[in-house]
Amino acid sequence: MICPSCGHDNVPGNETCGNCQQSLTTLDLPAAGSRVEKSLMNDQVNVLPPKPVVTVRPETTIRRTIALMLEKDVGAILVVDDAGKMLGIFSERDLLTRVAGLSDHPLDQSVGQFMTPRPTAVHQHDTLNYVLHKMDGGGHRHVPVLDDGRPTSVISVRDMLRHILKLCKDHG
What we know:
Layout: H1 35-42, E1 55-56, H2 62-72, E2 76-80, E3 86-91, H3 92-99, E4 116-117, E5 122-123, H4 128-138, E6 142-147, E7 150-156, H5 157-171
Parallel strand pairs: 1-2, 5-6
Antiparallel strand pairs: 2-3, 3-4, 6-7
């Protein structure tokens, strides 16, 4: 990388110029090559259409939670306290890995026993790229969006895919 201050040819990846010690970090920022990349890098969570949050209390039974997931056609339900602050998430994956196969009547037990506590969450002003990074890195298909600890929505992999497909379709 050529230093804009002194013209020294630096080794790629250097954070400072080997000659004048000028910072080179601002020169090595990724650039969007397409409309999709630009959206992922710059657009915030709030560009996605909001979906109502489906919540339950920790003492809600697994049976009622499953019924609510089916009724609302969601793959994850957020578990909240009396003040509406998120305690955890209960997803289809939790149902399969934590509940299925138990012999002692798990459907009548509380969702609080089987939820994933303190799940990865994002905020309205986080970029879509950040959300995808959190989903991919953690293996999550649903990520809650929080405002002051309270859920405002849930972003699913399907929501992200629809957004990307819409960008591709609109662009031709």
